[in-house]
Each structure stands twice: as structure tokens, then as C-alpha cells.
Amino acid sequence: MGFFRGLFAPFRGGLYVLRHPLKRYLLVPIVLSVLLAAITMIAARRYWSEELSSMVASSPVLGGFFLAIMTIVGGVVLFLIAQPLLLSVFSDSLSERVERDVRGTAPTVPLLTLIGRALVHGLLKLVLYAIALAVGLALTAVTGGLGSLIGIALGGLSLAYDGFDYPLARRGTSFGGKWAFLARNPGLTIGYGIGATVLYLIPLAVFVASPFAAVGATLAYMEMEKAPPAPQPAPAAKNANLAANS
């Protein structure tokens, strides 16, 4: 149940935004995402133009091909790392609005506390992203396809953290507590990571994927909060089981 709830959560988030009067929340994120995509591609091309300058000079066709591939890969990686951070304020606002619409209220954190915690958690998240990226690239160089799969898995885990960060942060959850939530709900985490990754792979959806995924994570989290606890056996049944086993 948790896996499928997580798997469809990013797409449910998108449908919720499109079916409700929330489209205005997407205007600024779309503009910023388009600008970010252009900046990351330009930055990646400049970097790899210097790194591959000798190859391009000696073999223009082959060098140009590698330059194009590395520019795209580098630009996409930079975009996926920077977009959630750039759009965090807008995604958080949209997430809180959705929670208020559904429940009538949403927990709040003092502004200064929220900003300070977001900065600290954002820096810690960047460190983890850098480690995950380095591990993924190293394993890809050594093991090929296996390393690529591990890199994709780490990317999906990062997307899961980004999505559930919004409802958890409003509840004052610590950095370690957020990762503990993901660990306690492996089905939800894995499903959400896969769903968010697929959403990012849909052409043009990448520009709205971050807010859509944030809303989907918020809806999934609220459903889990109100889910009834697992039924416990009655005391009489427990005593009968103990008597039968003795």
C-alpha cells in the first residue's frame, strides 16, 4: 500500500494543482526553471569545452559528439541539484496551501526558525548530494551499468527527501528525523522516488516537477497521518494464545 501511494503521489500532486485554483503558484517556478535550465547548460558547456578542448581540436567530429553529450549530462545534473533548492520557497508555500485546503489548517514554524533550519538542512543536503553524485560517478566508471543504477537510486532517494521535507519541516522535524521517517516507511520512500524520477523524465514536466512532487508528498503524508493504527489482538485473545503455547 505504501509503495503504490508513493509511486502515484507526484502525479496525484500534479492533478490536484491542475484541478484546483492553484495554477498561479506555477508561474514563477516555470520561469525560474527555464532560466535555470539555460544557465546550467551554458555553465556545463563552458566547463566541458575547456576539459575537452584538445579532443575537439584533434578530432572535431568525435570531440564535438562527446562535448554535446557531456554538456547535456552535466547540465541535467546541475539542474536536478539546483532546482529543488531554487524553488523550495514556492514549493513550500504551495504545499502549505494544499494542506490548509484539505485540513482547514496547517502547522506553522516561526519564520526565523524556519529560515535558519532551511539553510542548515539545505547545506547538509548539498553535501549529501555531492557525496551521492561522486559515488554514482565512481561506481559508473568501475562497474558500468550497476553504477548507473546505483546513481539513479540515490537520485530517487534525494527526490523523496525533497518531497517529504515540506510537511515534515512544518512539524519541526530535525534533519535526522526526516531521514528516519523515510527509513521507517521504505515502501513509501521507494515508490515516491520511482514516481518522482519518472515525472522528471517526462518532456517539459521537469519545469513543474518540483512543485507537483511537493504537493503529492504532502497529500501522501496527510493520508499516512490519519491512517488508523494496525489492529492489536484483544487481551483475551493474547491470553488464549499464551495458554495454547504453554
Any overview of this molecule?
The protein is an all-alpha fold and 246 residues long. The chain has one domain (2-225). It is built from eleven helices and no strands. The chain has helices at residues 2-19, 27-51, 53-58, 60-86, 88-103, 111-143, 145-169, 175-184, 186-201, 209-226, 235-245. Helix 7 crosses helix 10 (209-226). The longest helix has 33 residues, at 111-143. The two termini are 36 Å apart. The model has no long low-confidence stretch (mean pLDDT 82).
Helix/strand/pairing category: mainly alpha
Helical content band:
over 70%
Order of helices and strands: HHHHHHHHHHH
The total of beta strands comes to 0
Largest sheet: none
Contiguous low-pLDDT stretches (5 residues minimum) are none
Q: How would the global form be characterised?
A: globular
The average pLDDT value, as a whole number, equals: 82
> How many domains would you count in the coordinates?
1
Give the distance, in angstroms, between the N- and C-terminal Cα atoms: 36 Å
Count of DSSP H/I helices: 11
Radius of gyration: 22 Å
Could you tell me the strand content as a percent range? under 5%
